[in-house]
Amino acid sequence: MFEHATTLPVAFWLLAVAATFLFGMSKAGFGGAAGSLGVPLMALAVSPVFAAAVMLPILLAIDIIGVVVFRGRSDPANLRIILPGAMLGIGVGWLTFGHVDARWIKLLIGIEAVLFAIDRFRAARSSGIAVASAPTLGPGIFWSALSGFTSFVSHAGGPPIMQYLMPQNMDKMRLVGTTVIFFTVVNFAKLGPYAQLGLVDLSFLAVSLLLAPVIPVGYYVGYRLLQAVDMRGFNLVTAWTLLAAGTKLIHDGIAG
Question: Quick one: pLDDT at residue 3?
Fold first, then answer.
């Protein structure tokens, strides 16, 4: 089972460990959209298809950890809106898969992420007190459907849903708990359509298993950092990671 893993170059393992750590840390709530940089990081040493196949079991394992760690901390009112919206987006992604150019999707989402990050920097510099706002049906359905769609076709679902949730100025733990539940449902919901499209490849499961010990380390570090920073620091870190992820998506969209 592990024979193929032994033939991989050292550069891959260094990048894979870094990517897995980054995924774990960001999924714990510290770094947010930085997790979307994991597969591109691994793809510096191997093909993107190989990287995505290796990371899928790791992502699902991290999602399960997140559900346990953040149980009871999500926002039910938001989830009642954004989970159906995400299913709508996944459905559209499934039906249109192969007919849309993922490069354009990445470019548009990247531009949106960069603009939103700039707006978050502006909000963080404001001396006013952030006022929490209630979930709204129309924007919630729109952004969550867009998140489900972009997650399906280009693994870039983070920026759209953060554009909807962050302006609500909810507590950081509640915000992270909501995104944990959201992306756990989204990632598991994609398995069926992915399998039907022939996109689920478990032939590299041995590589994923060898990387598994890194998952709790990254998650623990990310969770402790989340607890340590105040709300303003949390918003700034999230804005910086959105900016980094958006810039990478723009690059990928242009470079193809």
Answer: 46
pLDDT at 91: 97
Other CB atoms within a 10 A radius of the CB of residue 68 amount to: 8
Mean per-residue pLDDT of the chain: 87
Q: Where are the domains of the chain?
A: 4-255
Contact present, 242 and 32 (Cβ < 8 Å): yes
Which structure tokens are listed for 40?
Answer: 């591109």
Neighbours of 126 (CB within 10 A): 8
For the chain, percent of residues with pLDDT exceeding 70 = 93
**Distance (Å, rounded) from C-alpha 95 to C-alpha 100?**
10
Contact between 181 and 74 under an 8 Å Cβ cutoff? The reply is yes
Quick check: 204 and 14 in contact, CB under 8 A? Answer: no
Q: What CA–CA distance (Å, rounded) separates 211 from 83?
A: 30
